[in-house]
Amino acid sequence: MIKTERLQADIEALRAISDPCNGGVTRIGFTERYRQGVEYVKQRMQECGLTTYEDEIGNLYGVMEGQDSSAAKIISGSHLDTVRNAGAFDGIAGVVCALEAARVIKERGIKLKHTYEVLGFIEEEGTNFGQVLLGSRFISGDLTDADKDRFISKDKQPLREVLSNYMQGIETVPACRKNDNILAFLEVHDEQGPVLQETNTDIGIVQSIVALSQLSISITGFAGHAGTVPMNLRQDAGLAGCSLVSRMTSYVLRKYTNEATFTVGKFSLLPNSSNCIPNNCSFTIDLRSGTQAIVDNVLDYLQDMKKLVEQEYNVTIDVNIDSYKDEVVMDQGLQQLIAESCDKLGLSYRNINSGAGHDAMIMANLCKTAMIFIPCDRGITHHPLEKVEWEDMRKGTELLLETILRLDSQF
Ligand SMILES: [Zn+2]
């Protein structure tokens, strides 16, 4: 039987393995504290009979050998690292649920045909190297040995050097699993949004992980005295920026209320002085949608508005696309299997898109991949107050287990 108290004990133990911070959890990839967290999970894996190992990047595996060694592997997990002053569930919950599923399989004496692996990814948040999804990108082969010299930590050390310290005395295997035979990757994760709680739904079955574009905008006008230049003769870069942001926001809000998000998280003016007309305004745009076509439509609209605002305010606007990532669609067959498992277990569910990136989007390049979302309180995440009900952790584990058993018997 799935034991809620074991789920709770693991989450609380990992919550306590934290660098000092403001009431939350700080366990950043490749640090001593991260090593402690990994050792905790490794021990729990070994206790329930899993064989543990780490790959060259520090991703942690716990393996339950299947009856048929030639059968493709089933993998489930999430990340073990956190941002600074994070909650206790983001990522960690997915590892803890996958581990509990392994315990229950063992306790019930179930012999899986397929090998089942519990996986804890390192450095998903990118807090140490500024590279999100680092662990999974080495697994998928997107990143290779040469990148270990290219990536530099916050403390100005190359990844290769950081790894040689972090991995001291630990035997490792190559990270890349491109040529491995993997049947499916399943990631349980808290929703990090409010929809499941607000609609009183047990489970979110992820359809796609959103397309994401990040842009930086720089507007050039002409500085002047706040008291002497008449309003109609100004080239006010600040006002132009405000106008552009306001036009874009209301367009997305009106046209794509539940389908896209448009966020300006940084906004700055030069010379940034109370009695000066700004000659420069620069800001960032973070644009996301589950549908690539919507992102493209908003980017087209941005080009139209750019011309309009340039004319209206007599400024020039540079639009730089810093990143442009396609949506990642989760495997249809797995989504179906998860839905059938929900039906069997009497769990309510809805389809949902993930507005945040996850290791699953990288694993989808390797094998059939799906994500199971469980509710979190008010969608609060990357914050000490992040909270998942223990009962929801149990439901997520129950669903994961059922899905693993179905996969095992159907393939
Ligand atoms: Zn996460």
How would you sum up this structure, described in words?
By secondary structure, the protein is an alpha/beta fold. It has two domains: 4-209 and 327-410, Aminopeptidase (3-Layer(aba) Sandwich); 211-325, Alpha-Beta Plaits (2-Layer Sandwich), CATH 3.30.70.360. Helices cover 36% and strands 24% of the residues. The strands form three sheets. Strands 1, 2, 3, 4, 5, 6, 7, 15, 16 and 17 form a ten-stranded mixed beta sheet that branches. Strands 8, 10, 11, 13 and 14 form a five-stranded antiparallel beta sheet that branches. The chain has a two-stranded antiparallel ribbon with strand order 9-12. Strand 1 and strand 2 form a beta hairpin. Helix 8 packs antiparallel against helix 9. The longest helix is centred in the last third of the chain and has 22 residues, at 292-313. Bound molecules: zinc ion. Zn(2+) 1 binds at residues 79, 90, 189.
Question: Could you provide a short overview of the structure?
Answer:
This protein is an alpha/beta fold and 411 residues long.
What is the secondary structure topology, with strand pairs?
Layout (H helix, E strand, L loop, with lengths): L3 H13 L15 H16 L3 E5 L4 E5 L8 E7 L12 H16 L8 E6 L12 H7 L6 H4 L8 H8 L5 E2 L8 E9 L4 H4 L4 E7 L1 E10 L3 E2 L11 H19 L4 E4 L3 E4 L5 E2 L2 E10 L2 H22 L2 E10 L2 E2 L2 H14 L3 E6 L4 H5 L5 E6 L15 H21 L1
Parallel strand pairs: 1-5, 3-4, 3-6, 6-17, 7-16
Antiparallel strand pairs: 1-2, 2-4, 7-15, 7-17, 8-13, 8-14, 9-12, 10-13, 11-13
Helix pairs in contact: 1-3, 1-12, 3-12, 8-9, 10-12
The structure holds zinc ion.
